[in-house]
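[Discussion] Sanity-checking designs against the backbone

I'm trying to build intuition for which residues belong where. Below is a structure token string of 369 positions. I'd appreciate it if someone posts a full sequence so I can compare it with mine line by line.
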């Protein structure tokens, strides 16, 4: 059905970083979003793949598939396949269903060889149906790529704004809304909020700060998976821990992870029990969303203070004594709303990506034998 060319690596002494030389594809690291992205070049030509060929990873991770928009030299970690869009989507499905696993499992270095690729049995419809199937799945890939690029652009925009919309010791941010011009005032976090630590489930006899409501989700470090840091529901329940109490908060609170995912801020919108790997900001004298965004901006700084051990931990006193520069409450509010809107757009594109991927996964299961 298709011509297959196994790769052969050039001598490493001939590798270059000169884009005028030949693009070298060695493996999965040279592909992104199903396309070859030039990373290394070579002056030596061994085996080649032509523009439009499919590139199959034959070494860990085995079975990843991409396309090349360039004439490239292929190393021993990949194979070139001259196939249409249907074959491309079929190879994607073979990776998803674990087709190559039976050949690669158990070896010291996970790989597949030319015999296993050439003898792979596939089911094909007539060319007209191949084109139809390939076309609809290609459209979906294109839509996913567009949303991923828009999401990346928004993430880059937000990253730039986080660096410029908050003041440093000068008291003035680089970028701000035109109706504001006052100097921001420096203060310590402990002076604008009571900061307490969460607690692991404790015996029923523990103090009043604790609760044993069996309907309360228990927030643990391993649960910090929310894309935007907003907690709307949790699967874990205290009832699974037996007769125990934990530190429980109800109305929206700002939280800060001080273990494992050090410095990650969260806002809860449900009643939750909080593990001792988090700090809770009580009775805040600031706009919640503004502080959430400031903590996002400041997060890389916390890694400097992480205490070594079985896992990185952040000392709560360091957080309490951290100096922050604050504008008026009105300016805080506008900054928080603005950056939250960007977060919402990022999440919208991620949700669209998830939805299209879900539909495509279903089609890949049903449109192939």
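Best answer:
Here's mine. Compare freely.
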């Amino acid at each position: 059905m298709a011509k297959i060319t196994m790769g052969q690596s050039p001598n490493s002494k001939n590798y270059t970083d000169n884009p005028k030389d030949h693009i070298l594809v060695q493996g999965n690291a040279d592909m992104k979003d199903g396309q070859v992205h030039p990373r290394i070049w070579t002056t030596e030509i061994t085996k080649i793949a032509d523009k439009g060929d499919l590139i199959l990873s034959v070494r860990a991770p085995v079975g990843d598939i991409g396309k090349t928009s360039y004439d490239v030299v292929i190393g021993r970690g990949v194979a070139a396949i001259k196939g249409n869009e249907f074959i491309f989507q079929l190879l994607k499905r073979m990776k998803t269903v674990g087709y190559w696993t039976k050949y690669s499992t158990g070896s010291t270095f996970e790989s597949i060889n030319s015999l296993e690729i050439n003898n792979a049995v596939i089911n094909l419809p007539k060319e007209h149906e191949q084109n139809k199937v390939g076309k609809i799945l290609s459209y979906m890939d294109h839509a996913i790529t567009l949303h991923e690029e828009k999401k990346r652009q928004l993430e880059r925009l937000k990253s730039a704004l986080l660096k410029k919309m908050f003041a440093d010791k000068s008291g003035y941010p680089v970028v701000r809304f035109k109706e504001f011009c006052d100097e921001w005032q420096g203060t310590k976090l402990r002076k604008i909020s009571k900061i307490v630590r969460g607690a692991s489930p404790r015996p029923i006899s523990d103090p009043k700060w604790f609760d044993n409501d069996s309907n309360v989700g228990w927030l643990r470090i391993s649960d910090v998976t929310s894309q935007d840091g907003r907690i709307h529901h949790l699967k874990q329940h205290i009832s699974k821990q037996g007769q125990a109490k934990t530190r429980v908060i109800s109305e929206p609170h700002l939280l800060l992870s001080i273990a494992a995912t050090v410095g990650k801020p969260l806002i809860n919108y449900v009643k939750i029990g909080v593990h001792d790997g988090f700090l809770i900001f009580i009775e805040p004298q600031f706009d919640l969303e503004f502080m959430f965004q400031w903590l996002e901006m400041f997060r890389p700084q916390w890694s400097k203070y992480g205490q070594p051990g079985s896992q990185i931990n952040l000392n709560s006193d360091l957080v309490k004594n951290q100096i922050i520069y604050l504008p008026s409450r009105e300016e805080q509010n506008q900054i928080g709303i603005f950056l939250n809107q960007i977060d919402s757009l990022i999440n919208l594109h991620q949700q669209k990506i998830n939805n299209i991927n879900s539909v495509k996964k279903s089609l890949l299961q049903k449109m192939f034998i």
